[in-house]
Specification:
about 220 residues; alpha+beta; Elongation Factor Tu (Ef-tu), domain 3; six-stranded antiparallel β-barrel; 12 strands; globular
């Protein structure tokens, strides 16, 4: 589990492609600290397991499903990536609950400036937009952001200067793909109200344990 608060922008050292998979090695000066084999790291919003450590370089295996659903396949040596270590018990939750399970990708349609904010418009398929609401949460390349607007074929977010300067968003260009993870709560609620509670195996206890309900 992550918060969507990026700790650093790492650099792809190498990416070795298999038939449909990949082995990524990433330079992570901050996120390599106290990291052990088997730990989870969010890479542009994708939760991957550390399978190799060499100094500040961390290696990860991405399976075909991950490569198909995310933008990791578009990375190359030298690419910057947003990195976040898993949430530690007792830490402040500065963003929102982010699993690192990417739902799909969106396309950067435009970037405009309004005073101190950069406004990003992201084209996305209907199956993702379905779960987004104005002022709701979304993880974009692993960054916890607030949805400003939702339209028929896009959504927009307003980016403060700190986020724009300290994540990969500042280097994104129109046409780039970005990983999108919708709010987990939206998917649970949809299952509950669709009359498929028994098949989904989701109960109010599940939501309580996940921190989405009080149980009162």
């Amino acid at each position: 589990m992550f918060t969507g608060i990026v700790e650093e922008v790492g650099k792809v050292v190498s990416i070795q492609h298999g038939a449909s998979s990949a082995r990524l090695t990433i330079e992570a000066v901050i996120c390599s600290q106290e990291t052990r084999l088997g730990d989870s790291i969010s890479i542009n919003g994708c939760c991957l397991t550390v399978v190799g450590i060499s100094g500040s370089n961390l290696s990860f295996d991405a399976v075909p499903e991950t490569m198909k659903r995310t933008s990791l396949g578009k990375l190359s040596a030298g690419s910057g990536v947003n990195l976040e270590r898993a949430l530690a018990v007792g830490s402040r939750l500065g963003g929102h609950f982010v699993q690192g399970h990417v739902d799909g990708t969106g396309t950067l349609v435009s970037v405009t400036v309004n005073d101190n904010a950069h406004i990003l418009r992201i084209g996305a398929p209907s199956n993702l937009l379905h779960y987004l609401i104005e002022k709701g949460s979304v993880a974009l390349d692993g960054i916890s952001l607030t949805v400003a607007e939702v339209n028929n074929d896009y959504f927009s977010v307003w980016i403060i200067p700190h986020t724009f300067a300290n994540t990969t968003l500042g280097s994104r260009r129109v046409g780039d793909s970005l990983n999108v993870e919708v709010d987990l709560l939206a998917k649970y609620v949809e299952k509950l109200i669709s009359g498929q509670k028994q098949n989904a195996g989701i109960t109010i206890e599940t939501l309580v344990n996940a921190g989405y309900a009080t149980g009162e």
